[in-house]
Design a protein that fits this description.
Layout lengths: L23 H17 L5 E2 L3 E3 L5 E3 L1 H9 L7 H17 L3 H4 L2 H6 L1 E7 L12 E4 L2 E8 L4 E3 L2 H4 L5 H13 L5 E6 L5 E6 L12 H9 L8 E4 L5 E6 L5 H16 L10 E5 L2 E4 L1 E3 L6 E3 L3 H17 L1
Antiparallel strand pairs: 1-2, 2-3, 4-6, 5-6, 6-7, 8-9, 9-11, 10-11, 10-12, 12-13, 14-15
Length: 317
């Protein structure tokens, strides 16, 4: 869970300006593999630092694919295969008929899910309905397809009906998802938190249905004190249900966990830890002012909770 990248060029070698997890040499190999992959699918592309374009002016971003290659512990020998799969999927999605035109409305609703995403790249002009769930994080609706996930714009949603009813249906679909995998992180210092893992693109977004996830994983309900949560990237959701002072070491450990999981990851969401209470998220960790580390930032209500738990721990000992 604390990712260890494959052994490749050392960090002391010159780094690529667009993808710093690649050396200059690795980035050149990656981009060559991408160009060849599109060519094998019959499309000649011009390769730029973080995207490719075709003669029709279509742009294909490379950020997610670059991170997938970086995180694959098999190393550069599989980058060509990963690039070919990616190019094939992208072109089938773009060149084929839209699922919004071919699927009946009820099937679309059955495949609708809410996604929590970073505000980076979210165009407020086309996603005006997007709901803020925390600073810099938004909930949008997505259509789950066999090879891709289609983020639905205002225009795409309009024929499907009332936005609140669509949200309710999507949240119900999210609650019905199984827990694919889980791990417990703990140590002798009192740290303990659960990590839900899965191939689903909606694993981290299950923070929107945290009460359901906690019951599935622990068999218990979330108390009024709430829980700590982290969503470093789309395939991980970490939580610690707040019951006693083990929340303090768990908060610090989750802050490191979130920052580590967020870095250089496909589908990155947030490097921070949040206080979940009644469905509301309050950010608790942040970058140091000098940008070199992490700090915990708590408001008055969370501070009062901390003090109460410490006092209860003393009186119970």
């Amino acid at each position: 869970m604390f990712r260890r990248g494959p052994k490749r060029d050392g960090r002391d070698t010159p780094r690529d300006p667009a993808f710093s997890f690649f050396s200059v040499h690795e980035a050149a190999l990656f981009r060559r593999q991408v160009r060849e992959a599109f060519a094998e699918h019959g499309l000649e592309v011009t390769v730029y630092a973080d995207m490719v374009t075709d003669s029709a002016g279509r742009q294909f971003g490379l950020g997610n694919l670059a991170a997938v290659c970086h995180n694959d512990d098999r190393g550069p020998r599989v980058w060509g295969d990963l690039a070919r799969r990616h190019a094939g999927m992208v072109l089938r999605t773009m060149d084929g008929p839209s699922a919004l035109d071919t699927l009946p409305p009820e099937q679309i609703r059955a495949q609708l899910y809410p996604r929590v995403i970073s505000e980076d790249g979210l165009d407020p002009q086309t996603f005006g309905y997007a709901r803020s769930v925390a600073p810099g994080l938004y909930e949008v609706l997505a259509l789950d397809l066999p090879e891709s996930v289609m983020m639905l714009t205002d225009e795409a949603l309009e024929p499907l009906g009332d936005i609140q009813q669509l949200r309710d249906r999507a949240l119900g679909n999210l609650r019905d998802l199984p827990v694919e995998g889980r791990e417990t992180v703990k140590d002798s210092g009192g740290t303990r938190f659960e990590v839900v893992l899965g191939d689903s693109f909606y694993t981290a977004s299950r923070v929107l249905a945290l009460d359901t996830v906690v019951r599935q994983v622990t068999g218990q309900r979330i108390p009024p004190e709430g829980a700590l949560v982290a969503m470093p990237f789309r395939h991980q959701l970490a939580f610690h249900v707040i019951r006693d002072t083990t929340m303090i070491p768990s908060l610090n450990a989750m802050a490191s966990f979130a920052a580590s999981g967020y870095e250089d990851t496909p589908g990155a969401i947030s490097p921070y830890v949040y206080w979940w209470r009644g469905g509301t998220l309050t950010q608790l960790s942040d970058e140091d002012e000098d940008g070199d580390g992490l700090r915990i930032v708590v408001g008055e209500e969370f501070q009062e909770l901390l003090e109460r738990l410490v006092e209860e721990g003393r009186s119970g000992s």
